[in-house]
Task: inverse folding
């Protein structure tokens, strides 16, 4: 029986294709089409629309083939076979590597699945020739299946359903389909933006990261998903080039450039070498991309004053999972909180600053308690904490300061360009100092205890908080500074 599937309006698809072709024509003289994908956000948004049809057809076909193995897929298949419902699709916000969608039945929206379309490149990588092996999607399916069974009651990992090989215009892609996690449908990032963090979530996140780092399943040998590293190697020469440029800068108002000169260029280049070496370590299983945008929680009210009833949590986007350096997961979990902490300092929001600082400390304390319960000693914890600082510094410096990725969601839409510039300078200075604290081989930091490392990290952040506090005193306060803006909502449920 022919499937009854909702199609996109043909004029919507045609217009999207026209718009994309125009964008490619505009960049043809200076860029290949692959480069355009990396450089033009408008291209990406149009391309997501075009690929809706590919995703919806694939999920419908697999729902029919796998209906005997899964209740959700069976409901979708039965509805389409009987022609009494239609399969709808929404684009989900966020993502610098893949396209994400929610698919659901029109008359029964609770019957839903998540689908992610993967490409042999990463949109966040400025090197258009960097290859992002599609085998990562199969490995993501493997690790999600294992981890979803690790904590059986209210698992913080969605159950994966299938991986499909697909092709469009001779381009190879993969689609990963998983359960739709209705219990958690907003990115955790929003709570840090609001400066109000659900304390129930932190122990669950800490436990999930610790359980992952302590997992010793035989399927995760040292080479598991090792190809994922290839796409990341281009970051290191980019950082070296950046430090060369900053070291030769003549702009005396650039605080980051001045810091590079104080630290000395060779020291900064050595940090990149140490970072690259650490990235290649095979120590524990890591999620490897555990920032707040890859953590889903229950949606809060528009004013940010009411949390969900259960404090539910789901960790998503496992495609970068590998056997790698201990501390990377906690470090990346801290990244968005640090940039939000500095943003709230600029806004003069004292309550938010306190909430974020306390939440970051609690996340580590809960994580450390799990490691201790599994027999890890204080030296292991000290090493883990220092490496967490290192990866925190690297990510905030490269992703937030250098590339500006994610920072469009910082609560600074009402600040002047001058103040915005001061904030990004502080983000750059603080993250570079943290990068140094974590990866420096100069000797001083090697002898610090865990408590002393915590104090050093707090001091680095406190210096920039004080700097931004001073700027905040001279700002004209806007009553909308602390309000959650509807255009910043990142809830997956509304399809943004």
Result:
């Amino acid at each position: 029986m022919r499937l009854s599937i909702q199609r996109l309006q043909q004029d919507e698809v045609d217009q999207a294709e026209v718009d994309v072709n125009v964008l490619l024509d505009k960049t043809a003289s200076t860029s290949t089409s692959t480069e355009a994908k990396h450089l033009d956000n408008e291209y990406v948004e149009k391309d997501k629309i075009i690929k809706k049809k590919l995703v919806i057809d694939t999920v419908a076909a697999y729902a029919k083939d796998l209906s005997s193995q899964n209740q959700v897929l069976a409901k979708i298949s039965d509805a389409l076979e009987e022609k009494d419902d239609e399969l709808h699709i929404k684009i989900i916000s966020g993502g610098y590597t893949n396209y994400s969608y929610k698919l659901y039945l029109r008359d029964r929206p609770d019957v839903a699945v998540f689908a992610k379309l993967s490409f042999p490149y990463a949109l966040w990588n400025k090197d258009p020739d960097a290859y992002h092996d599609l085998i990562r999607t199969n490995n993501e399916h493997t690790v999600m299946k294992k981890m979803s069974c690790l904590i059986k009651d209210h698992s913080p990992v969605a159950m994966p359903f299938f991986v499909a090989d697909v092709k469009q215009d001779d381009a190879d892609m993969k689609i990963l389909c998983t359960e739709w996690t209705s219990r958690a449908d907003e990115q955790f990032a929003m709570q840090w933006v609001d400066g109000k963090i659900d304390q129930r979530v932190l122990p669950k996140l800490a436990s999930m990261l610790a359980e992952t780092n302590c997992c010793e399943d035989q399927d995760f040998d040292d080479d598991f998903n090792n190809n994922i590293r290839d796409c990341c190697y281009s970051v290191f020469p980019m950082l070296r080039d950046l430090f060369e440029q900053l070291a030769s800068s003549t702009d005396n108002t650039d605080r980051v450039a001045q810091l590079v000169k104080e630290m000395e260029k060779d020291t900064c280049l050595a940090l990149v070498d140490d970072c690259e070496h650490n990235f290649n370590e095979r120590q524990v299983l890591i999620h490897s991309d555990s920032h707040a945008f890859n953590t889903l929680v229950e949606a809060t009210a528009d004013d940010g004053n009411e949390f969900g009833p259960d404090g539910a949590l789901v960790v998503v986007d496992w495609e970068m999972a590998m056997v790698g350096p201990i501390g990377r997961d906690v470090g990346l979990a801290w990244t968005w909180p640090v940039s939000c902490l500095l943003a709230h300092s600029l806004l003069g929001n004292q309550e938010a600053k306190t909430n974020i600082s306390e939440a970051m400390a609690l996340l580590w304390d809960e994580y450390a308690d799990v490691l201790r319960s599994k027999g890890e000693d204080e030296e292991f914890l000290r090493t883990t904490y220092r490496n967490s600082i290192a990866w925190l510094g690297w990510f905030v410096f490269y992703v937030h300061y250098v590339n500006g990725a994610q920072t469009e969601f910082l609560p600074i839409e009402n600040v002047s360009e001058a103040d915005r510039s001061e904030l990004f300078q502080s983000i750059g200075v603080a993250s570079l100092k943290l990068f140094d604290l974590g990866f420096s081989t100069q000797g001083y930091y090697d002898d610090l205890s865990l408590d002393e490392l915590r104090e050093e990290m707090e001091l680095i952040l406190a210096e920039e908080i004080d700097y931004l506090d001073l700027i905040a005193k001279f700002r004209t306060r806007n009553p909308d500074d602390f309000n959650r803006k509807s255009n910043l909502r990142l809830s997956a449920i509304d399809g943004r």
Residues 1-39, 485-496 have pLDDT under 50 and may be disordered. The radius of gyration is 23 Å. Residues 69 and 161 are 9 Å apart (CA to CA). The longest helix spans residues 378-402.
